[in-house]
């Protein structure tokens, strides 16, 4: 639990402020506990995640747009088949506590974590600067942020297949997907390969993926992926 709160501090997720006057909606928070297992089913870590109770959010006040692109399974299968056929090397990465990196554009307040209330300001609340797992707009905030990092632009077919800016001739661009999910929380991402350039063909390759899932208000998933080149 302390590790989770340290993640909040490191990512500058929130600021403790006096509770706003009036009818401002203050969203509750909840601890979710999970035993993380390895490939053999052995528990390797006891994990705690603080999530927002997104079911109490009010549309138009606490959130606006919630859509975030998610890589379709068909794209990932095509990518793997294409890379295997051309003997491309795929790379994958994972972002720890991905949603905590997504800046919020709405003014959102949450209650202090149960069991970790500030003794000097027990009635204060946290103003969110970045997304929390469980918020309805968390997947969109993360998708927009990671897209800016790697420079994705919309794909030729759908948004989840993006083309990196500044590809140039000779080689190939990369294709990838930002994390996303629906409702209260969740995330996923994927990558693809191939970019137009040079010699008239499609070349290059990259890939990646990662994801998790979560439910509205209570749970959250962890994930986020972006692609590398080949």
From TrEMBL:
On the tree of life, the source organism's domain of life is Eukaryota
> Which InterPro entries would you find in this protein's record?
DNA/RNA_pol_sf, RVT_2
Region feature Disordered, mapped onto this chain: 163-230
Which Pfam families does the UniProt entry name for this protein? Answer: RVT_2 (PF07727)
**Residue ranges under compositional bias (Gly residues)?**
167-230
- Reverse transcriptase Ty1/copia-type domain location is 11-145
- What SUPFAM superfamilies does UniProt report for this protein, alphabetically? DNA/RNA polymerases (SSF56672)
Report what the protein is called: Reverse transcriptase Ty1/copia-type domain-containing protein
